[in-house]
Amino acid sequence: MAESAESSKDYFVTTVNEDHDITCWGCGLRLLLPSYAPVFKCGWCGAITNQNVNKPESKWLWGRRLRDRCFVIILFMFILFVICGGVWAVYPVVFSISNTLGIVHSILTVILAAITVSTFCLSAFRCAGTPPTVVWGSYPAVGKGDLENYTFCHYCSKPKSPRAHHCRSCGSCVLDMDHHCPFIGNCVGAANHRHFIAFLFAAIFSTSYVSIMSTYAGLHIWPPVKYRSLWHSNSFSSNIAIQAFKEIMLAFASSAVQLSARGLVLVYLFISSVSLQIGLGLLLWQQLGYIYEGKTYLGHLSSQGSGDDRIEEKDCQNILRFFGCPYSISRYFPSLRNSPKRHLK
User: Fold this and answer.
1) 315 and 294 in contact (C-beta within 8 Å)?
2) What is d(CA 145, CA 74) in angstroms, rounded to the nearest whole number?
3) 3-state DSSP call for residue 213?
4) 45 included as an active-site residue
5) Quick check: helix, strand or coil at residue 56?
6) Pairing of strands 179-181, 186-188
7) pLDDT for 158-176, tens place per residue?
8) Whole-prediction pTM value?
9) 3-state class of 198 per DSSP?
10) Which residues form the signal peptide (predicted)?
11) pLDDT tens digits, one per residue of 67-119
C-alpha cells in the first residue's frame, strides 16, 4: 500500500508492512498499526484485540460438569439428612419436655429448612448472569465507542464486556462473576449473587439452631457420667489437673458407648453443624468484605495481578446497593451518601 503527497513538486512515497494491516473484530474496519502490537484498541468502536490468544481446548468440560453435579447431589442429600435426622432425633425429646417447646421447635425447623433449601436451589439452578447482547462485526451497525473495552471471547466466539468473565467449568461468559462454586454446581454472578449470600446466611442460622437443639436434646438423653473425685487434696498441682482431665474424658467416652442411635445422630449433628458454621462464616465474612469494597473475588485477583494500586472507596452503601435496599435508607448514613460505587470487574 502506498501513499503519495505532492508538495513543492516533490513526491514522497512510504510503504506499510502488510503484517501491520489488521482488521478489528468489533467493527470490521481495517487498522494500520505503526508496528506489530499483540494487543491493541480500535480507535472507532473501542474494542480490544489480543492477537496472541488462541482458542483453547475444552475437552474436560464434561468432567468438570460431572464433578459439579456430584457435589450438588452430595450437598443436597446432606441438607436433607440434617433436616430429617434433626427432626427424628430432637422431635420426641422436646415434645417430652413441653408441648409448647415442641410446637415452637417444629415451626422454626420448617421455616429454616424452607429458606435454606429455596436459597440453595436459586443459587444452584438459576443462571448466574448473561452478558448483554451487542451488535458487532459491521462498521455501519457499530457506532463510535459502542464496544468500549470489549474483548473477544475465544471460547464463546462472541464479544465479552469488561464486566464479564468466561467460566471454563460452565462453558459460558458470566456477568459480574465472583467465582465458580462446585458445591452449588454454578457460578456466582450478577443474577444469583444475592441468593448465594442469602444461602450462606440461612445455612449459618440453620446450623446454629441445629447445634443448639442437638446439645439441648443430647443433655437430656446422655447416660450418667461416672468418674472418681480427684479433689480430695487441698493442694493443686499440674499432675492432678492432667489426671482429672483424663478421668473426665474417660468417663465421657465410657458413657458415650452406651448412647442410643438417637444420641449418636445428635453427636454427629452437633459436630457437623459446628464445622459448617466455621467454614461458612469465614466464606460469608470474605464475601461481605468484597461487597463492602465494591469488588468481586475475581476483580480483587485481577487488581492484584495487574499491580493496580488504586484505592477503592469502601462504603456501606455498597452493601445496601448490593441487596437492593431503597434509596430512602441512605438518610440513616449521611456520611455515606451519593456514593457512585458499583461492582468492579
Assistant:
1) yes
2) 47
3) helix
4) no
5) coil
6) antiparallel
7) 899 888 999 988 888 999 9
8) 0.80
9) helix
10) none
11) 999 999 999 999 999 888 888 888 888 888 888 988 999 999 999 999 999 99
